[in-house]
Design goal:
Layout (H helix, E strand, L loop, with lengths): L59 H8 L8 H15 L4 E4 L2 E4 L8 H12 L1 E8 L6 H9 L23 E9 L2 E9 L14 H19 L14 E6 L8 H10 L5 E5 L7 H17 L14 H13 L2 E2 L6 E4 L2 E8 L2 E4 L8 H11 L1 H22 L5 H11 L13
Helix pairs in contact: 9-10
């Protein structure tokens, strides 16, 4: 009875040494090299339980060959080839490294990131702020209503007899929540009645420029606050539709001055209003003349060439730039044409269909503005125009005092300087 040794103190079997050439894979062999050790790896790791497993037996090593890899394969006594197949096929940790990146051998689920982002943004909703600028009577409100197929802009029937014409340009904003397919968008329309309607129109763009900068300033103040909101309300103007009168001759000096002064602070999209007043030939000649005048005046309208991210964007934007300014017709009335209801303008010669590409370029403008470039308009506003204003504002001498005082009042500190809060 004294010769029986408990299993805890039994000596472990000696592991044979690894030959010098074992471990170097052969170029012609698809399997890893097999040595005299367990699983063809020379020296094997002990089982998780710490109890030695005799060579040729089954144990925890079988599960390890599937889940962990080379170290815990089947024993050589059971079959080294089976161990090598498991080690080579299942023991790569799910990826294959190469110079071009990693190829997944199994499903992880990173493709659900886009779905997560979609759900997040669906809950949050979207903001889009659009400004319309142009003379009275060019159909600004009607066109916006046609774009979104809703009464987002109240139609102005002209000045009443007892109503005074404003001496300066007024800024009127109205917001609506539009929902389509479960997607909610807060649309804010900024109208500028009185623009270009005076006898003397000197500096009539200043109220508009001031309003645009005030929205940048409001956003900047929210950013530099210590206890700022989780989601800063975005009232910045993302797009400015500038309506050009369909004269058929050339741009007016007021048109050139406005676009030249505001093209660096907002995304300007020039459009020719009421294009049904011109023939097809007159419209094409007028568009070419407008493009040439804009180029000669150094006016950059959206999408700018320097903002093209890659060759695909450049190709798409080049086609858009060649078609601009869009000659459009707006209408929120429906008529029966060939057995179907269409939006259009009824004339003595027939119905001008708004959404018909053969009649006007409204469909191109809508696809460009909403379906393909709405998000890019917001990104250019934030990354280019707002950053330009922000850098200028923070670099001004003494320009930070109003922002610093806001921080001081909100936090109750005795002194507050923007530099103390790590603002670049």
């Amino acid at each position: 009875m004294s010769d029986i040794v408990p299993p805890e103190v039994r000596p472990k079997p000696a592991v044979p040494a690894k030959p010098p050439n074992v471990g170097a894979p052969s170029p012609s062999s698809p399997f890893p090299p097999q040595g005299p050790g367990i699983g063809g790896s020379g020296t094997s790791a002990p089982p998780p339980s710490g109890i030695p497993v005799p060579i040729g037996s089954h144990g925890p090593s079988h599960a390890g060959s599937h889940g962990v890899g080379h170290g815990l394969g089947h024993s050589a006594g059971h079959g080294g080839g089976h161990s090598a197949a498991h080690s080579g096929g299942h023991g790569q940790s799910g990826t294959h490294s190469s110079t071009g990146g990693s190829t997944l051998l199994g499903y992880i689920g990173i493709d659900t990131i886009i779905e997560q982002m979609r759900k997040k943004t669906m809950k949050t909703g979207f903001d889009f702020n659009i400004m319309v600028v142009g003379h009275s009577g060019l159909g600004k409100s009607t066109l916006v209503n046609t774009l979104f197929k809703s009464q987002v802009s109240r139609r102005s029937a002209g000045w009443a007899r007892d109503e005074k014409i404003p001496k300066t340009v007024e800024i009127k904003s109205v917001s609506h929540v539009i929902e389509e397919g479960g997607v909610k968008m807060k649309l804010t329309l900024v109208d500028t009645p009185g623009f270009g309607d005076q006898i003397n129109n000197d500096n009539c763009w200043e109220p508009i420029s001031k309003f645009i900068n005030e929205q940048y300033e409001k956003f900047l103040k929210e950013e530099v606050n210590i206890t700022r909101k989780k989601r800063i309300p975005d009232t910045r103007v993302h797009c400015c539709l500038y309506f050009i009168s369909p004269t058929g001759h050339s741009l007016r000096q007021l048109d050139i001055e406005f676009m030249k002064r505001l093209s660096h602070s907002v995304n300007i999209i020039p459009i020719i209003a009421k294009a049904d007043t011109m023939t097809t030939e007159e419209r094409q000649e007028f568009k070419q003349r407008v493009r040439k005048e804009l180029e000669m005046s150094g006016i950059e309208f959206y999408p700018q060439k320097e903002f093209d991210d890659d060759m695909e964007d450049k190709s798409d934007n080049d086609k858009i730039r060649e078609a601009m300014p869009f000659a459009v017709v707006g209408s929120d009335k429906e008529y029966q044409v060939n057995g179907k209801r269409v939006l259009g303008r009824k004339t003595a010669w027939g119905v001008v269909e708004v959404e018909n590409p053969n009649h006007c370029e409204f469909a191109q403008l809508r696809d460009f503005l909403i379906r393909s470039h709405l998000q890019d308009l917001k990104e250019v506003t934030h990354n280019i125009h707002y950053e330009t204003y922000r850098a200028k504002r923070l670099n001004e001498n003494g320009g930070l005092h109003p922002i610093s005082s806001t921080i001081t009042e909100s936090t109750g500190c005795a002194t507050a300087h923007t530099a103390d809060f790590g603002i670049p």
